[in-house]
Amino acid sequence: MRRVAVAGVGMTKFGPSEKSQVEMFAEAAMEAINGSNIKPRDIQALFMGNVLGDFTEGQMNIAPMCASELGFSPGTPASKMEGACASASVAIRDAFMWVASGYYDVVLVGGTERCTVMGTPLATRTFAMASDSRYEGFSGITFPGVFAMVAHLYAKKYGIPLAKLKERMALVAVKNHKNGTMNPLAQFQKEITVEKVLSGFVVADPLQLLDCCPFSDGAAAMVLASEEMVKKMTDKPVYILGAAQGSSGPLYRQKDITRIMAREASAAQAYRMAGLTPADIDVCELHDCFTIAEIVASEGLGFFEPGKGSEAIERGETAIGGRIAINPSGGLKAKGHPIGATGAAQGYEIVKQLRGECGGRQVEGAKTGITDTLGGDLATIVNIIYGI
Amino acid sequence: MRRVAVAGVGMTKFGPSEKSQVEMFAEAAMEAINGSNIKPRDIQALFMGNVLGDFTEGQMNIAPMCASELGFSPGTPASKMEGACASASVAIRDAFMWVASGYYDVVLVGGTERCTVMGTPLATRTFAMASDSRYEGFSGITFPGVFAMVAHLYAKKYGIPLAKLKERMALVAVKNHKNGTMNPLAQFQKEITVEKVLSGFVVADPLQLLDCCPFSDGAAAMVLASEEMVKKMTDKPVYILGAAQGSSGPLYRQKDITRIMAREASAAQAYRMAGLTPADIDVCELHDCFTIAEIVASEGLGFFEPGKGSEAIERGETAIGGRIAINPSGGLKAKGHPIGATGAAQGYEIVKQLRGECGGRQVEGAKTGITDTLGGDLATIVNIIYGI
Q1: Residue from A347, A340, A348, A355 nearest A388 by CA
Q2: Which of residues 91-120 of B touch A (CB under 8 A)?
Q3: What is the pTM of this model?
Q4: Cβ neighbours of residue B30 under 8 Å, at least 6 residues apart?
């Protein structure tokens, strides 16, 4: 297995867009290709995530459409992965293997999604399709409902008064919005306060409006290359040190939804592959679809003991400059969450951080980073570890 | 790169089913797992195709649901590929690489789809989403329309009177229905005549009802293993000798829709990888979504010169016992076409043929076989070459 590196990265501004998914992807992809000092014809294969293109634009089989938009030859395979909100990360792990194996030297990977055209009711219904449809989805469970349950169970299990947990959850939103103000590509560019979070309308008790990430449009892309090739493409290569994926299936198979089995399995694999421990990681982009999701993910990734994640927020340990900077990009919460693109946008941020190109939100001296992407209600987790 | 083999295979009966997509997949998968003399816990990763699970059952992110149904551990990655009707073949090629690279020793691959629950109007609308949605889909183009154009252009280009071409197209349907009567898993189990095809109602001129494959439900699966492992699993391993994929994008990028650029690129790659030529192939399962599609595919795969495929049908060269047996399973036309499962069902048939387990439809002495799967209106092609 060869070492695999990221050469160039690209990303659109997140938020409502008038562009089609193919156009957004082409924009992000051309930035990644240009940043790799290559031409589109140098790309040997495309792997990408997309989830709801059929519902939003009537576009299935979007990968060859994107390949065509970029002018790739008919001999260039273009594959789409769908793993709900983890789709782009599934694609990154897969693309990694095609280069690591020695089969390809240079591939394009990423994701694109347009959620805002659906409106909230249809978006909510279609997102809920990532739940088990036989026994759970039709009962009315939606993702805010799942994470509301996680919050209640977390408070109960660890003996944290719900009001205290809600304040700490609010601090996650405050931190990520603050980070977002320093990210010109973030959907939200304004700071918020704990008071504002706690006075928002209730989405699914105890989650209030600002505990929830928005619906977003956007795309992100990366060029992956073999170690030999990347040296000709950039003087700032970022290596993929670990790539792992886990799957838990329906909620009814979970023993304890405050600890996601797929994440613990996936993170352990990724750290083992990279030869690193959580203490070695400088920066993390994780799946904060809801504020409580960031807290449980920070524990699942091994940064804090189970039950200790919410205290860590309060102590500022996850802020930029803290013990482990979490979601310096603003996260799903403030940067936005175009679901099929999210994993690639997380990778974009880590690569930019490790290159020292993040301006006001730069995590000083960052040399290693991890992404964590969740698909469905705890069903799919992908973790990628990057390093320089 | 290591050699990769198929250990066990499984397939449900195709046709309308009361089972869910997850249940059908589990049925096919358990047959493949049992046939490999292993337990579900021995599977290290799952790769599968599914296309319309969200429309038909409200089920996205189906791969971890299938992994859960089969009892796989949370550390077992489960990934879904969507490449329209080629989805399962995209998954097979991908799974192949994960074993060839040395990363996994034993993986499960396949596909599942339930089309009949939608009814023809919704099925037609959703299938059409695999066309380019920006410039083509909304104009009203559907797949029967695309292949009707292919037929007209083919007749014109090669100077074949349309009535003569229609007769030869009808012979494709007659052959595949005859083959289907010898396949207990085929959706249609009755022979038809040229007269019956030519008296069917017109779907999209010149295509009549029996020129078109049906909507189907079904699933198929295969266990792939490294050469070292497969020897412990079965005494009838079938090797994957070549695996290639091409992509053409929207119709407007095609120069000549009677010759699909993605297929010519993909087939050339697959033959090169296998070190074989079309003349070396004994049996072929190709994408006969319409009768004319079989004719152009038989040429694109190099069995006949462009423009000569329809004469070959007339001479019986593609029948079982002919020069190159095409679609001995009955093909999409008679076996059925549960879109996300089709590529795996083609692989199932080739493996069964190479093992000599096909009874009345056995291609005597078959040692090599190729599958050809088309996704979208000419957008994605995957070719897999198998051998013993």
Answers
A1: A355
A2: 93-94, 97-98, 100-103
A3: 0.98
A4: B10, B40, B70
Flag whether the ipTM exceeds 0.85: yes
CA distance A43 to A66: 13
* Residue of B281, B274, B221 lying closest to B7 (CA atoms): B221
Secondary structure (DSSP) of B118-164: G-HHHHHHHHGGGS-TTTTGGGT--HHHHHHHHHHHHHHHHT--HHH
Decide: residue A17, CB within 10 A, 0-12 exposed, 13-18 middle, 19+ buried. Answer: buried
Amino acid at B275: G
Say how many CA atoms lie within 13 Å of A381 toward its Cβ: 30
Beta strands at A283-285 and A202-204: parallel, antiparallel or unpaired = unpaired
- Chain B residues with CB inside 8 Å of A29's CB? none
State the Cα–Cα distance between residues A264 and A262, nearest whole angstrom.
6
Angle at B7 between CA B4 and CA B8, to 5 degrees: 140
Contact B371, B89 (CB under 8 A): yes
The Cα–Cα gap between A116 and A118 comes to 5
Which residues, 6+ apart, have CB-to-CB distance to A163 below 8 Å?
Answer: none
**Residues paired with residue A78 on neighbouring β-strands, in sequence order:** A46
Rounded to a whole number, what is the largest CA-CA distance in chain B? 59
pLDDT band at B249 (very low <50, low <70, confident <90, very high): confident
The pair of structure tokens assigned to B137 is: 């889909």
Structure tokens at B42: 């021995």
Chain A residue closest in CA terms to B133: A59
Sheet strands (E) in chain A: 4-11, 46-49, 78-81, 106-114, 202-204, 207-208, 217-226, 238-247, 283-285, 325-326, 368-375, 380-387
In order, the DSSP letters of A38-57 are --GGG---EEEE-SSHHHHH
B89 vs A: CB within 8 A = no
Backbone dihedral angles phi then psi of residue A132, each to the nearest 5 degrees: -60, 120
Distance CA A317, CA A299 (A): 13
Buried b / exposed e along B23-32 (16+ C-beta atoms within 10 A): bbbbbbbbbb
DSSP reduced 3-state for B181:
coil
Residue A83 DSSP code: B
Catalytic choice (B66, B289, B337, B358):
B337
B92: closest chain A residue by CA: A79
Pull the structure tokens for residue A354. Answer: 């490790």
Block residue for tokens 């980073």: A369
Residue A375 touches chain B, beta carbons under 8 Å? yes
Judged against a pLDDT cut of 90, whether residue A138 lies above it is answered with no
Res A35: pLDDT: 98
Q: For residue B256, is pLDDT > 90?
A: yes
Look at phi and psi of residue A119 and say left if phi exceeds 0, alpha if psi is from -120 to 50, else beta. Answer: left
Structure tokens at B63: 């791969």
Distance between first and last Cα of chain B: 18
